[in-house]
Design goal:
- GO terms for molecular function: nucleic acid binding.
- Belongs to the mTERF family.
- One of its GO terms (biological process) is DNA-templated transcription termination.
- With about 350 residues, the chain is an all-alpha fold.
- About 65% of the residues lie in helices and about 0% in strands.
- The relative contact order is 0.05.
- Among the domains are: about 80 residues, no CATH class; about 70 residues, no CATH class.
Amino acid sequence: MSQFLIKIISQPKLYSCISNPWPWHSLRLSSTLSSSSSSSSRGNSFIVSYLVGTCGFSPERAVYISKRFSFETSDKPDAVISFIKNIGLSQTTTLRVIQSLPQLLVANPKTLQPKIDFFKSKGFSSSDICRIIEGCPSILTRSLQNEIAPSFDCFDAMFQSRHKLIKAATGYSAMLYDFARFTEPNIKLLRDEGVAESHIVRLIQYYPNQLKNSPKKFKEALQEVKEMKFDPLTFQFIVAIHVKTKIGKSTWERKEGIYRKWGWTDADIITAFRRCPWCFASSDNKIEAVMDFLVNRLGYASSSVVKYPLILSMSLKRRIIPRGSIFLVLQSKGLVRKLGLASVFRINEKTFLSAL
């Protein structure tokens, strides 16, 4: 019985990269229980010393990590560090990768190399691969056969442009795993609504993390957007889903309250969101500041923002205040008549300056 318990205790747990900071996927950990408490103490002391001295961990963090895996010599962790550096990462970046995913120290470089070879075979440059590892170290812990390769192949068929896919994957390498669990069901939901394939590809390019939402959450956002009468054939449909899933229900309700405070009706809120979903992505303080400047300083009715909600996503300091202040001065001197928000703020800087 005692041997059975030891065997059970020594088995490493498997964690998801999304839900737990210790994703062990496909890594073989050498965890050893010593019959001697003093021997175990010396082993932990060596690991802590290595983590602090070589990897730059704080003593507290090193002690915490040392309880989760072990190594008796520095051979294996040294080999892993050398492997990561040989990919092309600097010493500083290599240690940052190790610090974000310390279980890599007990990985076998021979199991990591095929993933690097795969990326190279698909056209990723050395700098691309470095960006992938730096941006998402856990990609090294994912199964090549079951996750990375199938995900890449599916996206490759969709993009029909290896260059665009490499750019997207380099910017958000987490898109290359959990495809069947999250990405594939969410893509199916969009296809079932008649969303154009080109718009789905743009979603992956610009908002790839949206496909990591649970299918349940993604479907709820999609249904809400449909109820607001967004057209699935337009990219605005995609943007609305993105904003909806990004801010969540409580944030949405809080922003509704802010707009109501400025006199907007429920119909106004829906109208503004349909015209520019980004008006709900701005921070509470930004919304308040823009509305205050437009209504109380420039004298616009709050309903004018409903007609041109894009202004809420513009820079307050770089565009709204400077441009609004100039028009305020010109108006006070009778040099210009009062113009609509779009006429004042939509035109580019060159056109604006030439019109003065």
